[in-house]
Amino acid sequence: MPDALFCWCRAGFEPELAAELTERAALAGHPGYARAERGNGYVEFIASGARALAMALPLERIVFARQKLLRLADLPGLNPSDRITPIMQALDALKEQGEVAPGMFGELWVEHPDSDDGKTLAGLSRSFANALRPSLRKAGWLSAKDDPRRPRLHVAFLGGHHVVLATSDPRDSSPWPLGIPRLRMHAEAPSRSALKLEEAFMTLLDERERGLLLRDNMQAADLGAAPGGWSWVLMRQGMLVTAVDNGPMREQLLDSGRVEHVRADGFQWQPRRPVDWMVCDMVEQPRKVADRMATWFREGWCKQAVFNLKLPMKKRWEETRICLEAFELQTHRPMTIRARQLYHDREEITVLAMPSR
Fold first, then answer.
1. CATH number of the domain within which 29 lies
2. Where do the DSSP E strands lie in the chain?
């Protein structure tokens, strides 16, 4: 029976995710314990009411998880000559318990940790998916054609002899395997940081919100803009951008006529009139950044914002919680806040903020 949440994360941030899940689960009234090892790329949170916890703790509220799954079965010690039979037997046992039903799964995702050790399992994962998928369809577990509306069945390879069976709800999970969107660096982008803002818009806004909030001729401000990666993304969304930085910007941005470069300190500059979007990727202490971002909302200088918080080496979950709570308190208004450590982030998290509607 489901006994744990299984969450993919950035390798090296397992302790942060474990601490976050432990605290959030306790607050939700579903205490348990986390099992994690630094560098393995995932965390298991063991709880007797795992299914109820999964409903009480949506993915959008979890900062350090890329993906949230409900673990159905843990299958260590598999024989490499036949991994399919134990999986089928586990599904049959779950059916007897009333936990799963034939035909309930719309897609099969076979995954592996995004870690140094886990990447060695990539070839096995691909080949095993091709072998398992027809067997699941023949046995009636998987719909005849992929149906993204139904729950997914996940097979997570933790080693050649060890898999975890899990499921995810498409309404409360990442739409990408491992929670990693496949973005490519554009040849015209001024820096790789452009991928962070692109991923933020894809991950932290839903399709309806993107249609409403990312429109032509919106006004935007990019604090600490040089060399212009985030300004470039905003410009590509059709916005008119004020890029604030004492450093140089890429000339192609300025030649576009949609980006104005203001040489000023991003922590001191303020707009003459409110803008639709403010973005900020400045390297500074996270509490200082959170305080300045709150000022922008408190003074009514922006409607929406995306900003990064660079985290310290220790107590990163604690620092994250302190910064987000302080930011919300100092805005002096009800806020919608979504924070995530994105795939293209490093020692940081990305925050989307906008007044609650």
1. 3.30.2130.30
2. 4-8, 33-36, 42-46, 67-75, 107-111, 152-159, 162-168, 219-223, 240-244, 259-262, 275-280, 302-310, 335-340, 348-355
